[in-house]
Design brief:
about 220 residues; alpha/beta; 6-stranded parallel β-sheet; single chain; 10 helices; about 50% helix
């Protein structure tokens, strides 16, 4: 068994490289709903970090429920023909966790359908549990509910779990339960403000997927 009986992985920009793809698509949506609006990549990353995607849409741009539904429908259609690449080395972490008899869960703002597709395409198997955008709002990250459900379902203690994520909503989710969070610094989003904050909030920070692998499995080579 690795260091933690259960890994809880974020999906976008932790397991798959989706930031540029999602940003370009959001600019396309903005041109439809708020034509002429300028919104830089750094602003997009910061707002997703601080507010979450839906929070950003509502608070910065005043999206209505109908516009959010429209955006989601178009995004799901877009993803039918666009599969983000996985980060080099993350497959080693995922496979070793399963080979060691550990649990692998996903808590993300992506939909179940997209997470399941990406795992099937890149890794050939499914996580033990997926908690995605399809859940009711009060059960999605940053609610602690996904972790509470994982602990109840698999009879785990907070110390049995490590959450790996690139943004601070994971910390909001995990902190009330005493679950540790590791910063997926390898996502390389390059915003110093986020890096400083995540390194102060998280129990661990890993520059690469290999560094995470070595930490989890106490080895020097993959």
């Amino acid at each position: 068994m690795g260091r933690y009986p259960c890994l809880v992985l974020d999906h976008d920009d932790t397991v798959v490289q989706s930031m540029e793809m999602s940003y370009d698509f959001f600019l396309y949506i903005l041109e439809q709903f708020r034509p002429g609006t300028h919104f830089s990549l750094e602003e997009y990353i910061l707002d997703c970090h601080n507010l979450g995607f839906v929070g950003m849409c509502r608070q910065r741009f005043g999206f209505t429920d109908a516009e959010l539904k429209n955006e989601h429908s178009q995004w799901m259609a877009y993803l039918q023909t666009h599969v983000p690449d996985s980060y080099p080395g993350i497959e080693n972490v995922i496979r070793r966790q399963k080979e060691e008899g550990g649990l692998l869960c996903v808590v993300s703002h992506s939909s179940y359908e997209n997470i399941s597709r990406d795992y099937r395409v890149h890794f050939g198997f499914q996580p033990d549990a997926i908690y995605g955008a399809d859940l009711p709002a009060h059960q999605r990250k940053p609610s602690p509910w996904p972790l509470e459900d994982i602990m109840q379902r698999y009879h785990l203690k907070p110390s049995d779990i490590l959450v790996v994520d690139d943004m601070k909503l994971a910390c909001t989710m995990a902190a009330p339960l005493g679950v540790e969070v590791a910063f997926a610094k390898w996502s390389g989003l390059g915003v110093e403000e986020i890096t400083r904050e995540m390194e102060s909030l998280c129990a661990y920070s890993f520059d690469s997927t290999k560094a995470l692998y070595d930490f989890l499995f106490q080895e020097k080579t993959v």
